[in-house]
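From the shared-data thread, chain only:
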Amino acid sequence: MEGSGTPHAAGDRARGDSAVTDANKRANVASELGRADESMRAARVLVDAALLHDAESRLYYAIYHAAVALLLTEGLEPRSHAGTASMLGLHFVESGRRDPQDARLFARIQKYRLEADYGRDFVLTEAALREDLDACQGFLDRARRTIAGFLG
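Structure, as tokens:
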């Protein structure tokens, strides 16, 4: 029923209910890491194919999914890309558990993704993109080390 606060369909959640529970938190974290790995592999293939704008977009999604996995370990479920960036800074960088360079990298790659997808004059070089690949792989590796204890 509209406005009753009850879910509309089996997969819907009532407002305020979190999809992150003790029962599925590990599975959600593992799923996000899998998506991060898949996006990183896609970025490498796209760079090798000289599809640089698409590669930059995939790089963003690699670190986005890694950031979401980190947040899920704390029971935090971001609802937007901006929220992911904000929560990463607040809960991991400001607490000293992640280096501020990770938040800066996330913000830079997020900006580049938008430019790569929508900017008419955004110029990418293969050399710069390969540097971004290395930096994003480092982000993903650091996220995995942070999450390793959580996944057991």
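Helices lie at 25-48, 52-73, 81-93, 100-118, 126-151.
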